[in-house]
Write a structure and sequence with these properties.
The chain is α+β, with helices and mostly antiparallel strands. The chain has a single domain, classed as OB fold (Dihydrolipoamide Acetyltransferase, E2P). Strand 2 and strand 3 form a beta hairpin. It has a 4-stranded antiparallel β-sheet, with no helix packed on it.
Length: 71
C-alpha cells in the first residue's frame, strides 16, 4: 500500500530543502539533491510513501551477517 502527501517547497538552503505539508503542521527536510530539476520555492509536490519489502529483506540479511561476524 502506498500513500501520497502534498506539500509546498518552503525554502532551500545549500544542502536541505524544507517542504511544508498541506496540514500546515508538519515539515519535511530532504537533501536538495532529491528535488527535481528546476524545483523552486513555492512549488507544490506530491510525495509518495511506499513500503519497500525487498529493501527490508536486504537490510535484514545485512544485519544478520553483521551479527554473525561479531560472535
Amino acid at each position: 500500500m502506498k500513500k501520497e502527501i502534498i506539500g509546498s517547497l518552503d525554502r532551500i538552503t545549500e544542502q536541505t530543502a524544507y517542504i511544508i505539508l498541506n496540514d500546515d503542521e508538519h515539515q519535511l527536510q530532504i537533501p536538495v539533491d532529491l528535488l527535481p530539476e528546476g524545483a523552486d520555492e513555492g512549488m507544490a509536490f506530491t510525495i509518495t510513501i511506499e513500503r519497500n519489502e525487498e529493501e527490508e529483506k536486504r537490510l535484514a540479511a545485512e544485519i544478520a551477517a553483521l551479527k554473525a561476524s561479531l560472535t
